[in-house]
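Please predict the structure of the following assembly.
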Amino acid sequence: MVRITMPQNEYMEEHRKRHGRRMDYEEKKRKRTAREAHKASADAQKIFGHKAKLHHAKRHAEKVQMKKTLKAHDERNVKQKDDGAVKEGALPTYLLDREGQKDAKALSTAVKDRRKDRAAKYSVPLPKVRGIAEEEMFKVIKTGKHKGKSWKRMVNKATFVGEGFTRKPVKLERFIRPMGLRMTKANVTHPELKTTFQLPILGVKKNPQSPLYTSLGVLTKGTILEVNVSELGMVTTGGKVVWSKYAQITNNPENDGCINSVLLV
Amino acid sequence: MATLLPPPKRQKSNYAKSLEKPSAPEPEVPIPSIVVQFKSSEDGSNLGPAINLPADTGRDALQMLVNKLRGETEDPLPYAFHLVPKVPTTSTSTQSARVQINNSIQLDALKTPGTTFSPEDVFELWCEPQAVFRVRSVGRCSATLSGHSSPILCCAHSPTGKYAATGSGDATARIWDMDTETPKWTLTGHKGWVLCVEWDSREKILATGGHDGQVRLWTPSTGQAYGQPLFGHTKWITSLAFEPLHLVKSNSSSPRLASASKDGTVRIWNTSTRTIEFVLTGHAASVNVVRWGGENVIYTGSSDRTVKVWSGVDGKLIRTLNEHAHWVNTMALSTDFVLRTGPYDHTGKVPKDDEEAKTLALERYQNVISTQPETLITGSDDHTLFLWPDQASSSFSTSATPKKPLARLTGHQKQVNHVAFSPDGRMIASAGFDNAVKIWEGRTGKFIASLRGHVAAVYRVAWSADSRMLVSASKDTTLKLWNLKTYKIRIDLPGHTDEVYCVDFVADKVVSGGRDKTVKIWRN
């Protein structure tokens, strides 16, 4: 027998129009909405099985959306530049319609750069790093009612997670990156100027230990980071402002509590 | 224990060498006597009979002879001489199609290896009269003027050479005083990049065209706008051209202005009333360049691969020339220089009033026209240029139909970006994206020489007023001054830190501007 869940006619609305609502309808409604948050939280902790999986997936998506809207609201208060200004990239008349044409030289250098990238041949200050064993990197977390399952790992080293980071649903998380070990700024030393700046990290480019650590964002000695150098005010020959550069970590951040690195110029 | 080389011998100092007795002179080789036939390069006629001369006659002596033969001993003109080798140079591609005689026939033709001359031929010496005045060579950067906050897109010298105007991507145009090398006025008003700038031949109006589709007129003496901006175009302005001074009707004081735009139309404006006289529609794509010829004929080159010839009187289409296979990028007339400078020439004479200016301009124009009718050259993205015969209706007596080109100039390996006639109309210089500047004969379109030296695309070329020097601006941030006797670099003018977008050469100064936002003035 198929259950019919919706009212089949407008009898509910008709009753409300004829007789109105209960005297304490507003108060009951207010109290019920106040309890919603607690009820939702209690449900999320107690449900199990297929229902739980569906609920958690839906909730994760909602969380991600909420974070994005909050960020957008924050940006709303920042003043934007006046758009009456002239566009950048002025070109004389004979170059105006030639955007699509690329020089053969530009194409060949682009191809060579891509090949170098794939071969990952870079000259860096620390070419070799000590290998780190998995026992040192991860701590096994036992879960389950009798603490029998041990498939979760907690990262023991410093990590970088990025700005829009939202944790995966807790039940499905395999690698835990504790908030205490998350770092956002690095002390970057310019090798020629010999001065050090504290610059925000934009991302982890490569961890020499393993690509898994690169994707997790683990920061160990020898990791290549991308840092935001707009504070330094460097300009290319074409007049464009350089705002990100690579740097390599030179200390063990989990021992010191800070990241010391050297800029790769 | 390897064997050591003996230490190098001590060289004798110059003084010690001068104390030595001079070595015995080389045995004298008898200088051959050759037969020389002077030919005028204007029409190929013989200037007098064939003359028997010793082969080491210097250039000055040859010049004197030619002047005597022509009967111009009171007013001697300087001449440039060259020989055309009879055997086609198929083996060596480096040899140019003509051999310039700079010192004497013996040194330049007989002695140099690789040429196929022998003392028994009759040497046909082609004589080209050169300008009586001489422009001083440019050698150093005398001033670097900053002020623009965006790359400089166009520059133009005023007809007298006193001022230069530059337009830039920051929506302003600036006028610079060339004598003191300082900024004079800043002309603000455009809402987009200033793409083209043109002076009228009396230095009274400056016209600027912008990326916003507006054409604005300014008075250079006060730096103020000359009336309201001229609206009408829907897309950006690609080129501007003023009416030649000798065509301006006496009742209207200022010349008309033609503006070409990406929207495919050319609008002719009356600059005193700032209204549209007529609109030349018909092109199916962007009109890239417009020129106003001296016979009241307007030439337009467009991205629809055609060149259209219009009447300057009423705006009717006279004919369409469609031989190009790709966009027509650039165009030049043999009378370009004389129409741009109007009544001003190298004597520095200032006309008293408009009437005198008009007569002077007409005189100068007719001087140039008498030797060579107004020819048009167009350069295109299909790597070639076309030389077109005179399009004005007054010269239909020639055998060649005006629709057929006189010559197709091939040789560039990439798109041709800029082409310019020399002021005397004898030579054409074309700049292309293949890093070469090519020189062609102005009358027939025959290839003369290829000037190599730039390492990136050459954007612009400019001739000096006496047609003896050529300066080219390129993407590789240098300007190069070329020696037109040996077809090699004469002086390299580095100094810009980014691509050089525009260059102009009037009087004895070169002004250049580029992406590094500075204007550089180069002089002797």
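The first helix of chain A runs from residue 11 to 19. The CA atoms of residues 48 and 55 of chain A lie 10 Å apart.
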